[in-house]
Amino acid sequence: MYKLSEGIWQIVNLLTLKECDSLITKAEALGFRMARMKSQGRNNSEAFFQCSETIKKLSFRLKYALKDNADGFEFVSLKPVIEFYRYQAGEFVTAHSDAPQEIEHNVWSTLTLLIYLSEDIEGGATFFPESGIQIHPQVGTGVLFKHSLLHEGSQVLRGTKYIIRSDIATSGCFN
C-alpha cells in the first residue's frame, strides 16, 4: 500500500486481470441501470452484486495490504454488497464526498474503496481537487480514501470505464 497524499492510499494488483474481467462479465450479466443519484451529479450506470466469495477474497487481501501501515489503522470489515459503476464516453461523476455506511450492526465505514476493472480508456481519472491528486485507472489497482475527501470521476473521453466501489470499516486512528 502506497500513501499518495493525506487520507489517500493506493494498492497495486489488488485484483488480477482475470478477476477483473470476470467481475465485468458478472456485472454486465446483472444489467446496469442509470445511477440512482443522477440528480446529484452521477452521470454513469450502476449494478449491485452480493457474493460472499468475492467479499472474503477482497477482505483477506485488504487486511494483508493494510497490515502494519504507517498511518496506524487496521482493516475491520468490508461492505457485503459490491457496487459496480460503468462510465461510457461522456460520462462522469461531479465532485462530492462520501458518507459513512453501517457495514454491520454498530460498525461504520471510514474509507471508500475503488478498484479499477478496466484501463483501455481515455479520461476517467479519479481526481481529488483539494490535493490535486489525479489517479488514472489501472486494472486491478485499488484506491482507498477517507470518506470526507472531495473527489470526482473525471469524464471518460473514449472507451468504457468499470470500477467497483465499496466501503471499509477500520480501527485505530489516521496519523
TrEMBL record:
The keyword Oxidoreductase applies. Its cofactor is L-ascorbate. The keyword Kinase does not apply. It comes from the Bacteria. GO terms for molecular function: iron ion binding; L-ascorbic acid binding; procollagen-proline 4-dioxygenase activity. Keywords: Dioxygenase, Iron, Metal-binding, Oxidoreductase, Vitamin C. Residues 74-170 form the Fe2OG dioxygenase domain. InterPro entries: Oxoglu/Fe-dep_dioxygenase_dom, P4HA-like, Pro_4_hyd_alph, Pro_4_hyd_alph_FE2OG_OXY. This is 2OG-Fe(II) oxygenase. It comes from Aetokthonos hydrillicola Thurmond2011. The lineage of its organism: Bacteria, Bacillati, Cyanobacteriota, Cyanophyceae, Nostocales.
